[in-house]
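Working notes for the structural subgroup meeting. M.R. asked for a predicted model of this chain before we commit to crystallization trials. I am recording the input and output together here so anyone reviewing the notebook later can reproduce the run.

Input as submitted:
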Amino acid sequence: MDASILSFLIPKVPFLLKTALYHSLSLSPTASKWDLRTELTIKLIREYVCNSKPTSISKQQAMSLKDSGIKGKMWISKVTFPTPEEDDSRKAVVDAVEALKEGFENYTVPDLAPVEAEWTGWRKDVGKDAPRPDLSESEHYEHLMNEVSSDITILYFH
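Returned structure, recorded in token form:
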């Protein structure tokens, strides 16, 4: 068993034993409806969610910003779409904002910028921790398209 799982479960052993005993003696309100495994699972999740020490927002944000990198069973091909020469898309957004404006709200109209995106697809016959091949982005896209087995396309814009 993983050390992090053990460090989580060991302090909960008395709680789990009490829950198992109450369930076995039918003293638990859910003993007639749930099996022991379900009761232990639900009670453990409730204990963890409801009685855990709160974490600061900055710590939660820091945990969510960790980039694990590209690895495993996926092809990722990064692409950058350049800023268009025409200004039609920005003009359409500004016109919509102006039409919905109530009063004298002020805002700064942003400049157009290049759009970064990623083509994403399934990568066959590799392990879940396999590193990303050292190829150019166009070669990644070619490999991705060679392994396509359906018409579904996923393009993530950033």
